[in-house]
Write a structure and sequence with these properties.
This protein has 212 residues and is an alpha/beta fold. It has one domain: 3-Layer(aba) Sandwich (Rossmann fold), CATH 3.40.50. It is 53% helix and 13% strand. The chain is built from 6 helices and 7 strands, in the order αβββαβαβαβαβα. Strands 5-4-1-6-7 form a 5-stranded parallel β-sheet, with helices on both faces. A two-stranded antiparallel sheet has the order 2-3. α3 links the parallel β4 and β5. α1 packs across α6. It starts with a helix and ends in a 9-residue tail after the last helix.
């Protein structure tokens, strides 16, 4: 005997409710992990410091995320953690310069020697930051890296650098330096990025940035 349509609908609704509850719980756990990992600062001497790029504002002006990441990288350079520093980030849509070029400008203003700065101007995503930084490191004969980014970005960055077998430690920008509204918004953005990364890797998609 066929199941009554109303009973079948209730069953479907219950299944969907369970799926949504599990998804929400998983995202909550991931958000906590993102936050917790970003509070751990582990700077160690390395062959190079890598500053992960951040999107520029209109006219190629460095935004707050770029400024605080680069300034933190400059502080680590002045403290002697490495003699070299890599600026990462390619050319965004309708931008007059690359993220790496904006990074270099801030570093020079912060007193970092120009000949200590290396440019990775190809990447358009965190995964490509890792890929092209690794190529630059191999060209220079460098083995280790001290990677700098905002705290909310560290967990995914660490996972991607490990994915490409890059020997790296991570030093996040201080949590107190990031406005609360920006921090919450970027946690949500990181959750979306994790969804894309998991789907892409599970399906074996050949893309290294989003959207492809």
């Amino acid at each position: 005997m066929a199941r009554p349509p109303r009973r079948r609908l209730r069953r479907i609704v219950r299944i969907l409710a369970v799926i949504i509850a599990i998804w929400l719980f998983a995202n909550t756990v991931l958000a906590v992990q993102i936050h917790n990992r970003g509070t751990i600062d582990n700077p160690q001497p390395a062959d190079t410091i890598i500053v992960l790029g951040a999107g520029l504002q209109r006219g190629g002006v460095a935004g707050p995320a770029m400024v605080r990441r680069v300034q933190h990288g400059a502080e680590l350079w002045h403290q002697g953690y490495s003699e070299q520093i890599i600026c990462t980030g390619g050319l965004g849509q309708r931008q007059p310069r690359t993220e790496a070029a904006a990074c270099r400008e801030i570093l020079v203003d912060a007193g970092v020697a120009e000949d200590a700065i290396y440019m990775e101007e190809t990447s358009t995503s965190t995964e490509e930051n890792a890929i092209y930084s690794q190529k630059l490191m191999q060209q220079q004969g460098w083995q280790t890296a001290l990677v700098v980014s905002d705290g909310y970005h560290i967990l995914r960055s660490e996972w991607l650098f490990n994915k490409f077998d890059i020997e790296a430690v991570f030093s996040p920008v201080s949590f107190e330096d990031i406005p609360a509204n920006d921090y919450i918004g970027n946690i949500l953005r990181e959750l979306m990025a994790w969804h894309w990364q998991i789907i892409k890797d599970s399906l074996g998609l050949p893309f290294t940035s989003f959207p492809p």
